[in-house]
Design brief:
Helix content is 78%, strand content 1%. By secondary structure, it is mostly helical.
Length: 344
């Protein structure tokens, strides 16, 4: 019995890891054939890959905090802007360095998420509509602060730690450990899975769905801010924007998040699944960049694959039903043939 369970776990892990491995092998082969270089051919590629993995992984987890129970928070991008601009500039003014920028930004992002979650619970507006309203408010606040300059980290040696590979890996591993504990082993995670099964049923069972909701929004705000800090450190600056322009990273992280939740279902761990989904999509993007394609062309290819994946995932049950139906028909025909050919 234990041996069968171990074999099942190994197969599940291999299923989860298969997608990033396949993406790497396919893109590496195509890149070698077309450009003569592999997906990862220099130290710059390694740094770019780890940078993209951390920022996308963090923001994808932020989306998943609420989307796993049916809420889509469209204010996450604006929360990231507000937290990074105010928290980052405050830390720079106090000469706290890169760790200070990260801590202050995540702290302010946590407060933004707490505010959004509390208002959502009190007002009971549809999540998407409420998220759009909060996004517009946060964008205006970010745009009006610091003479519309946003957050400038380029050329500041005090924040160089944010670009160090060892620090990026350390933060990624810490995020995996903390979020795995919260989602899988904490009271918050248990209650969250109960809410996934049905809010009314969870409430009738004694789960405080409103407290769980506020905690989800709070975590999402902190994770979004973390993604924003590292993205700003690598890009050099974070310029405020209006008219929902802050949602670029939100929609860019949707594909890894959906792929990750699908992969995570194999092992019952959404955090590791989102990590594998993020690695897969980032390897795909890095491989496409080797072709010297424009960013818009790369986005068209990636979002087309996203659409195809969603169509396939939503129709997976139909494909499985048709496969089982064909198997039943084939079995019935074989049985009928055997009955006909057998002597009386």
């Amino acid at each position: 019995m234990k041996q069968n369970l171990t074999v099942h776990k190994i197969k599940s892990i291999l299923k989860m890891l298969s997608l990033p491995i396949i993406v790497f092998l396919v893109m590496n082969t195509i890149d070698l054939m077309v450009t003569g270089q592999g997906v990862i051919s220099s130290g710059t590629d390694v740094r770019a890959l780890f940078r993209n993995i951390l920022t996308t992984f963090s923001f994808a987890l932020a989306i998943n905090c609420n989307l796993r129970v049916g809420r889509m928070d469209l204010s996450l991008g604006s929360q990231m802007y507000l937290a990074c601009i105010f928290g980052g500039n405050l830390a720079l003014q106090m000469n706290l360095g890169g760790i200070g920028v990260l801590a202050f930004s995540m702290g302010l992002g946590l407060l933004c998420g707490l505010l959004v979650g509390t208002l959502y619970v009190q007002l009971r507006i549809l999540p998407m509509i409420f998220g759009i309203g909060m996004s517009l408010i946060f964008e205006c606040l970010s745009f009006g602060a610091y003479n519309q300059q946003g957050l400038m980290l380029y050329g500041k040696p005090v924040i160089s730690i944010l670009s160090e590979i060892w620090f990026v890996i350390t933060v990624t591993l810490g995020m995996i450990a903390v979020m795995t504990f919260l989602f899988q082993y904490s009271t918050f995670g248990y209650k969250g899975r109960a809410v996934q099964g049905g809010q009314r049923l969870a409430s009738d069972a004694g789960v405080n769905i409103y407290t769980n909701c506020i905690i989800s929004y709070t975590l999402a705000g902190a994770l979004a801010a973390c993604a924003g800090v590292f993205n700003t450190a690598f890009m050099g600056t974070l310029v405020p924007t209006l008219d929902m322009g802050s949602n670029g990273m939100f929609f860019g992280s949707m594909f890894p998040m959906f792929v990750g939740t699908w992969l995570g279902a194999f092992v019952g761990n959404p955090v590791m699944g989102v990590l594998c989904g993020t690695i897969s999509v980032r390897l795909l993007g890095l491989g496409l960049a080797k072709f010297s394609l424009e960013g818009t062309v790369q986005n068209v290819i990636i979002f087309t694959l996203f659409l195809l994946f969603m169509i396939l995932r939503d129709n997976m049950s139909k494909l499985s039903y048709r496969k089982k139906r064909r198997a039943r028909i084939a079995l019935a025909r074989r049985t009928r043939q055997e009955l006909i050919s057998s002597p009386l």
